[in-house]
Design goal:
rod-shaped
């Protein structure tokens, strides 16, 4: 009887347990494959900040261009 239990334990540990773990982690990987809601919000916030910085940079370039004469020309 104990030989049968040992054989069943070995079969469980060699076949069932690795397959069970593999399927478990595949399921976990599929659940976390996309971005979370918090990650999406952070990405949107960063995108908006980058747009605002780009607008500010263009404004500064326009101000500097209006104040400074173009270089390379001597009057």
């Amino acid at each position: 009887m104990s030989e049968h239990i040992v054989a069943l334990l070995i079969i469980f540990m060699v076949i069932v347990l690795p397959l069970w773990l593999l399927l478990h982690y595949i399921t976990r990987w599929k659940q976390t494959r996309g971005l979370s809601g918090e990650d999406e919000r952070s990405l949107v916030e960063l995108w908006e900040l980058a747009d605002r910085m780009e607008e500010r940079l263009h404004t500064l370039e326009e101000i500097i261009d209006d104040r400074e004469p173009p270089r390379g020309r001597r009057s």
